[in-house]
Amino acid sequence: MTSSLPATFAALGDATRFAIVERLLKHGELPVGDFLDVGPLSAPAISRHLKVLRKAGIVEQRVMGPRRLYSVRPEAVQSIGAWSMSYRDFWQNSLDRLELALSQESGRQ
Amino acid sequence: MSVLTIERRFSAAPETVFAYLTGNRNLLEWWGPEGMSLRAEHLDLSRPGPWSSSLVNAEGGIHKMSGEVIAVEPPKFVEFTWGWHNDRDERGHESVVRFEIEPADAGGTRFVLVHSGLPDEDSVTNHGKGWTSALRKLERLANP
Predict the structure, then answer these.
(1) Which residue from A2, A47, A75, A100 has the highest number of Cβ atoms inside 10 Å of its Cβ?
(2) pLDDT tens-place string over residues B24-55
C-alpha cells in the first residue's frame, strides 16, 4: 500500500491517532488492547482509529491466530522525515552519499 | 533569509569532484537524502542555462525543482538558483546554491557549499510550519 503525504498528515492530525503512532514507534508491534489507555475511548473506537491509520498507509496489520498486531510502516515515517528535513540535513545527507560515490570512483581507477 | 555554509574535504582530485557536482549521471548518484531518488530530466549544472529535476520519495511522492545555472568555471565553482514547484506546478521561493572547490593536501579537494536566500523556516520543502516539532519527535522515535 502506498500513501500520499496529505493523507498521512490528515490521519495524524488527530491526537488519539498521533498517540497510537507514537506508541507503536516506541514499542514496535502491538495488539489493539495496548491502546486502550491512550484516551477515554472504547475498543471499537480504537479499532476505527487504527483503520484510518491503515487506510492512510501509516500502520499495517498482521493476523496471528486470534490476535491482530499493528505496526508502523517505515516508509511512511521516512517520507515524513524527508518532507520536513532541514536544508542542513538535506545537504549533509547528500554529501555523505557524494563522498561514498567518490570513494567508489577511486576504487574503479 | 538565511545562509547555510558546509565545508568538506574529499580525497578525490578537484576535476573528479567537479564532475560529480555538475554532471547529470554523477548528480543522480548523490543529490538528495538516502531513501529518495533523483530523476534525470534536464539536470546538467556544467553549463549556464536552465535545469530541472524531481526528487521522488519512498512512497512515490514527487517533488519537482528547477532553476538556472548562473555561473560556472570548471573545476572551481558553479552557482545556480533553486526553487521547488508545488502540486499545481507553480514555482515557489528561490534560493541560490554555490559549490566551490579548490585543491587541498595530497591531491585532494576542499569543498564549500554556500546555500543563500533560504527561507527562515528551516525545512527543505518549506511548509513544515506547525508540524515540524511533532514530526521531529516521530522521526527521533523512528530512528533511535
Answers:
(1) A75
(2) 889 999 998 877 888 888 999 999 999 999 98
| Nearest CA-CA partner of B134 in A70, A29, A50, A19 | A19
Best mutation target among A23, A94, A97, A103 (most B Cβ atoms within 10 Å) is: A94
Nearest to A93 among B26, B33, B138 (CB): B33
Q: What is the DSSP secondary structure assignment for residue A97, as one 8-state letter? A: H
Least CB–CB distance from A99: residue in B10, B16, B113:
B10
The per-residue pLDDT for range A25-51, each reduced to its tens digit, is 989 999 999 999 988 889 999 999 999
pTM: 0.68
Total domains in chain A come to 1
Compare CB distances from A86 to B8, B111, B124 and report the shortest one's residue. Answer: B124
User: A57-61 — which CB contacts under 8 Å span 24+ positions?
Assistant: A57/A1, A57/A2, A57/A3, A57/A7, A57/A8, A57/B59, A58/A3, A58/A8, A58/A11, A58/A12, A58/A21, A59/A20, A59/A21, A59/A24, A60/A1
Q: How far apart are CA B23 and CA B92, in angstroms?
A: 25
CB B116 within 8 A of CB B3: yes
ipTM value > 0.90:
no
Task: For residue A22, give the C-alpha cell.
Answer: 507514537
> Which domains are assigned to chain B?
2-142 (3.30.530.20)
Contacts of B121 in chain A (CB under 8 A): none
Q: What is the CATH number of the domain that holds A65?
A: 1.10.10.10
